[in-house]
Structure formats: structure tokens, C-alpha cells
Design a protein that fits this description.
By secondary structure, the protein is α/β, with parallel strands linked by helices. The chain contains 18 helices and nine strands. Keywords: ATP-binding, Cell membrane, Hydrolase, Membrane, Metal-binding, Metalloprotease, Nucleotide-binding, Protease, Transmembrane, Transmembrane helix, Zinc.
């Protein structure tokens, strides 16, 4: 007994001492941190002198092209660069000029960063990554000095890949929109100077990524600088299948899961989205203490990535709001299934955390080219929600719930007339994005006219199929979610 007590006492004494020491150490660290932070804040960034905080450097990259699924053209396009970095002399003997810079362009999450990393991994080159936004500075000369430092670092580590994400932040068209920030211009100039100054034996390749190639300054994409442009697009069916396989590799899947079917259900998803689907599915399985990921988990994960989580608390939705949502989604569904012959795996009027009152999941028919009729019908599908609202509740009672639909419909109509040369009034024209503006009266009028015309047709089509609209809406009001099989029965297809 006694013995125990002494131990207790002594241990509490020890812990008191220990606590005191730890506590003073903690205070000391906090003070140090504050002091450091203050010092950093007080100095313009260029004078901080810690490269590792501006750029992300790594030597032995373990990412390979085999980790990048799909993107075959992009990989082909970089094959010679790997050979060059591995054995530059072979190329020099033949007087071959290897590009100094490559631009990877395409939507976010399609694997541009991953590709650049894999390029470094394959070539055994150092990978030095940064983002264009790191060079946007208000301090005089800081952006330019950081560029110098970036290339200095790469020279030390060569062979090296410099990766600049969001290159448009520094490489946007100069003088565009009258902004012409002179600091940004200096930074861009410095980048051009560095690239022009590359000598033949400096084994450095600059890879830059952007969502918008057409926004870049012409000087940047001229021969001798970033003269190789590689499109990295959204994955097609097969690529989605490959990407899903990559991200399922280290996860236990139930036998019923057919990843090819999952690929079919995930049109318009990027590689990052697909990786998110597999990850969320795994989390759902773990939450349920399941040993394997089932179709149900994957289904839920797809919904989450597309629409956000289902809202738990739905008490604040009125019956009228529910009814409007049901008819709105039924409107989309009728056009998608009956007019466009698209597959609709799910319609829901459960509100989501992403702010949607409901949603209609549509798997469009994947094709290389769409005809004008198909595009017009697709716009009709987007307008179907608003049209159904007007038919059931009257012109005065339409809601703002269609704003996202209208945005997408407008964009499609705009693309049709300004890029595909499919409008009678504008004729065979195709502009780049900077040349297109709804401020232009001709473009605005033509867009409006197309949308008006399709809206009228959509109203007619839904009126003609009003019994089907009613059937879908009523079923939604009863069960909140309808899947494809139930839809086929309701619509009798
Ligand atoms: P980007 O640079 O184009 O915005 P990232 O390369 O950062 O896209 O992609 C984000 C993540 O998405 C990657 O780390 C990877 O997990 C996944 N991913 C994207 N594309 C692919 C792909 N083609 N194959 C495998 N995974 C991919
Ligand atoms: Zn809608």
C-alpha cells in the first residue's frame, strides 16, 4: 500500500517537473514561431532565401507512366523527351533540337501534374514544382527574382523537370483587358529570358499546365519556348475504366463490382473525380464495417461526387417546394429518356449539400461528333426542367432553380454559333474564347433566338407527353428517388 503511494507521489512530482519543462518549451516555441513569422512578413518574399518553401523539389520520383491511365497521346508526345534526358548525347550527335518547354492544357483534374511527375520519374530527372500564382507579387522585382532562383535551382539539380502549374497566372496575354500589370510583365519577361538562355547541355525541360491555352501570351508559345502543346482532355470510356482500375488496385472490391459498368456511369468525370469516387466508396465501406467495397458504396460515392452529400435535415422544405422540384426533374427526365434516348440511372428530389434541390443523373451517348440536331436536343434537355415548371405551375410561378440549367444551355448555344459555325445568321465562323462576348449584339440576339426556339419546342414536347411527366413526378413525390428500371416501366419503354 505504502509503496504504491510513494510511487504515486514521486510520479506526480516527476510529472510536475516534466510538465513545467514541457510548458516552458512550448511557450518558447510559440515565441520563436511568432518571431519567425513576423520576420518573414516584414521582408518581401524574394529576400526570405528559403527555396524549399517557394518550390517543391524532389529527387527520386517514384511515379511512372504506368500510374497515369489513359492519356495515351500525351504519353506518346513525351516519349522522346524521356530518351533525351536519359541520353542527351545521342540526340546532340544528330543535331536534334529537343523542345525547351511543353504546355499541357485541359480541364482540371485530368492528370497534367501527374504526367509531369511521371515524366521526371521515367527520365530519372529531378522534379521541381511550383505554381504561376507564386510569382504574382506586389513587391517590385520579386516575381522576376523568383523565376531566376527557380531556374538556378534547376541548373544545380539537372537533369531536371521544372513544372509550373497555372502558367496563365504569369503568362496571360499582356495588356489583355487593359490591366497590363507591369510587375507581371517583368516576371513573364524573366521567364522568357531564362528559356531563351538555355544552353544545349543544360538538361532542363519546363513543363507548364493551364486550363486555357488560348489565354496565354503569344510570346510564350512561340517556337523555341513552349512550342509543344499537348492536350490532356477528359477521359473517354476506356480511359475511365483504366483510371478506375488504377485507383482500385489497393482496395478490396466485392465480386459484383464491374468497373467497366462504373466507367459507363461516370461520363464527364475527370481522373481526379474518379479517384475521388473510389476513395469515397472505400470510406463508406469502412463506415459500415464492411470487408469489401460493394456496388452500393460506389453508387453512393458517385452521387456524392456529382451532387454532394444528401442533406440529413429536410424539415425546412415545404410540400410545394418538393412538388416543384419533382416536376422540374421529371421535365429533364422526359426529354433525356424519350427525345434524346439517353440513359438516366437516377433521378432524385433529395436536396444535397452542394445546394441542389434535386438532380437527374444523365449518361449521354458518347460520340466523337454530335450533329446539330443532337446538340439542339441536348439544350432541350437542359430547358426541360423550367418548361415542366411553367406547364404545371404557370408562367408566373417559375423558379430560379433552373439557373444552372440555363447557364449550361446558354453556353451550348453560344458554342454552337461561335465555334461550330452552325448558325445561319453568323455563318461559318469559329472564334477563340477571347473573341466571344455576349456584349456583342449579333451574338446575343442569335443566342437568344436559338434558346427561345428550343424552349418552345421543349414546351410542346412535354405537353405532348404530359401523362409521362405526371407519372415520373408523382413517383418522385412518393419515393424521392427513381432508378433506371423503374423509369423504364413508368415511361413504358
Ligand atoms: P491536373 O494537374 O490536371 O489538375 P492532377 O494531375 O493533379 O490533375 O490529378 C489529380 C489526381 O487525380 C491525381 O493525383 C490522380 O490521383 C488522379 N488522376 C488524374 N488523372 C489520372 C489518370 N489519367 N490516371 C490515374 N489517376 C489520375
Ligand atoms: Zn434542372
Amino acid at each position: 500500500m505504502e509503496h504504491k503511494v510513494t510511487i504515486k507521489e514521486s510520479s506526480s512530482l516527476y510529472s510536475k517537473i516534466l510538465n513545467t519543462i514541457l510548458f516552458s518549451m512550448l511557450i518558447f516555441f510559440v515565441i520563436m514561431l511568432i518571431a519567425r513569422y513576423r520576420k518573414r512578413e516584414a521582408l518581401p518574399a524574394g529576400f526570405r532565401g528559403e527555396t524549399s518553401e517557394d518550390f517543391n523539389e524532389s529527387k527520386d520520383i517514384d511515379v511512372r507512366f504506368s500510374d497515369v491511365a489513359g492519356n495515351a497521346e500525351a504519353k506518346d508526345n513525351m516519349q522522346d523527351i524521356i530518351e533525351f534526358l536519359k541520353d542527351p548525347d545521342k540526340f546532340k550527335k544528330f543535331g536534334v533540337k529537343i523542345p525547351k518547354g511543353i504546355i499541357l492544357y485541359g480541364p482540371p483534374g485530368t492528370g497534367k501534374t501527374l504526367l509531369a511527375k511521371a515524366l521526371a520519374g521515367e527520365a530519372g530527372a529531378a522534379f521541381i514544382a511550383t505554381s504561376g500564382s507564386n510569382f504574382v507579387e506586389k513587391y517590385v522585382g520579386v516575381g522576376a527574382s523568383r523565376i531566376r532562383k527557380l531556374f538556378g535551382e534547376a541548373r544545380k539539380k539537372a537533369p531536371a523537370i521544372i513544372f509550373i502549374d497555372e502558367i496563365d497566372a504569369v503568362g496571360g496575354k499582356r495588356g489583355a483587358e487593359g490591366s497590363g500589370n507591369s510587375e507581371d510583365a517583368k516576371t513573364l519577361n524573366q521567364l522568357l529570358v531564362e528559356m531563351d538562355g538555355f544552353k544545349d547541355d543544360e538538361n532542363i525541360i519546363v513543363v507548364a499546365a493551364t486550363n486555357r491555352l488560348d489565354m496565354l501570351d503569344d510570346a510564350l508559345i512561340r517556337a523555341g519556348r513552349f512550342d509543344r502543346h499537348v492536350m490532356v482532355g477528359l477521359p473517354d470510356l476506356n480511359s475511365r475504366y483504366e483510371i478506375l482500375k488504377v485507383h482500385a488496385k489497393n482496395k478490396p472490391l466485392s465480386e459484383e463490382v464491374d468497373l467497366f459498368q462504373v466507367a459507363k456511369q461516370t461520363v464527364y468525370m475527370s481522373g481526379a473525380d474518379l479517384s475521388g469516387v473510389m476513395n469515397e466508396a472505400a470510406i463508406y465501406a469502412i463506415k459500415e464495417d464492411n470487408l469489401k467495397i460493394t456496388l452500393k458504396h460506389i453508387d453512393k460515392a458517385i452521387n456524392k461526387i456529382v451532387a454532394g452529400d444528401e442533406k440529413k435535415d429536410r424539415s425546412n422544405i415545404s410540400d410545394l417546394e418538393k412538388k416543384i422540384t419533382a416536376y422540374h426533374e421529371a421535365g429533364h427526365t422526359v426529354i433525356a429518356k424519350l427525345l434524346n434516348k439517353e440513359s438516366v440511372p437516377k433521378v432524385s428530389i433529395i436536396p444535397t449539400t452542394k445546394g441542389a434541390a434535386g438532380y437527374t443523373l444523365i449518361n449521354p451517348n458518347e460520340k466523337m461528333f454530335q450533329t446539330k440536331t443532337e446538340i439542339l436536343n441536348k439544350i432541350s434537355g437542359l430547358l426541360g426542367g423550367r418548361a415542366a415548371e411553367e406547364i404545371i405551375f404557370g408562367k408566373q410561378n417559375i423558379t430560379g432553380g433552373a439557373s444552372n440549367d440555363l447557364q449550361r444551355a446558354t453556353k451550348m448555344a453560344l458554342t454552337l454559333i461561335t465555334k461550330y459555325g452552325m448558325s445561319e445568321k453568323l455563318g461559318l465562323v469559329s472564334f477563340d474564347d477571347r473573341e466571344i462576348s455576349l456584349q456583342n449584339e449579333l451574338i446575343l440576339n442569335e443566342t437568344k433566338q436559338i434558346l427561345d426556339k428550343i424552349y418552345k419546342k421543349t414546351l410542346d414536347y412535354i405537353l405532348l407527353n404530359k401523362d409521362k411527366l405526371e407519372a415520373v413526378a408523382q413517383s418522385l413525390l412518393n419515393s424521392e428517388i427513381i432508378n433506371e428500371n423503374e423509369l423504364d416501366i413508368l415511361l413504358a419503354i
